[in-house]
């Protein structure tokens, strides 16, 4: 009897999982699936390599309305545990998938500000939607050492994407830019 319950539960989970070439999306959201694969292809076309999923061959993606963040890529020991969206836009999907690729070049939480500035810049250049360059200049962050920013200034980390985006826009080799960080 117990194994029947387990089989029924697994069938229910499989019924609402949408699989693509690189992702298993635990939501029947074809638009999210499209954005994920579009972002993945964009970064591969830039010559980048992704960090592997921590388990299996595909990255698990969840939509969780109770998540404290609009988007969050959970990183293990050099691998991607899962991507979680509370809500999403095309640009946010590009940002979270950028974490998948940046992790290959730089392990998370080594330099703090870099861990958000680089994926933010990657998403900005990829989508053409730039949120933070104006704030970077208005707040004169070019005069502030980003390595002095602690986690209490998390929002400022994203603003340094202005500088990284400038380099990415001019680079024919994104992997060399990502490796420099």
Q: Return residue spans where pLDDT drops below 50 for at least 5 consecutive residues.
A: 2-14
Secondary-structure content class: alpha/beta
Give the CA-CA distance, first to last residue. Answer: 54 Å
- Average pLDDT: 88
Shape: globular
Question: What profile does the largest beta sheet have?
Answer: 5 strands, mixed
H and E string? HEEHEEEHHHHHH
Explain how this protein is built.
It is built from eight helices and five strands. The longest helix is centred in the N-terminal third of the chain and has 16 residues. It is of the alpha/beta class. Strand 1 and strand 2 form a beta hairpin.
Brief characterization of the structure:
The chain has 181 residues and is α/β, with parallel strands linked by helices. The protein has helices at residues 2-16, 30-45, 90-105, 113-127, 133-138, 154-159, 161-170, 174-180; strands spanning 18-19, 23-26, 59-63, 71-75, 80-85.
Topology diagram in text:
Layout: H1 2-16, E1 18-19, E2 23-26, H2 30-45, E3 59-63, E4 71-75, E5 80-85, H3 90-105, H4 113-127, H5 133-138, H6 154-159, H7 161-170, H8 174-180
Parallel strand pairs: 2-3, 3-5
Antiparallel strand pairs: 1-2, 4-5
Helix pairs in contact: 2-3, 3-4, 4-7
Give the key terms.
disordered N terminus; alpha/beta; 12% strand; 181 residues; 5-stranded mixed beta sheet; globular
């Amino acid at each position: 009897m117990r194994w029947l319950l387990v089989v029924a539960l697994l069938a229910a989970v499989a019924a609402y999982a949408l699989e693509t070439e690189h992702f298993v999306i635990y939501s029947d959201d074809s638009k999210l699936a499209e954005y994920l694969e579009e972002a993945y292809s964009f970064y591969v076309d830039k010559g980048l390599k992704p960090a592997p999923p921590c388990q299996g061959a595909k990255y698990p993606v969840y939509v969780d309305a109770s998540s404290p963040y609009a988007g969050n890529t959970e990183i293990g020991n050099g691998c991607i545990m899962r991507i979680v969206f509370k809500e999403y836009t095309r640009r946010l999907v590009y940002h979270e998938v950028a974490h998948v690729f940046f992790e290959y070049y730089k392990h998370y939480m080594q330099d703090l500000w870099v861990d958000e500035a680089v994926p933010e810049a990657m998403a900005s250049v990829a989508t053409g939607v730039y949120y933070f360059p104006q704030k970077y200049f208005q707040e004169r962050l070019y005069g502030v050492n980003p390595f002095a920013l602690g986690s209490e200034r998390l929002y400022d980390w994203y603003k340094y994407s202005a500088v990284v985006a400038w380099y990415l826009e001019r680079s024919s080799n994104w992997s060399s830019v990502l490796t420099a960080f």
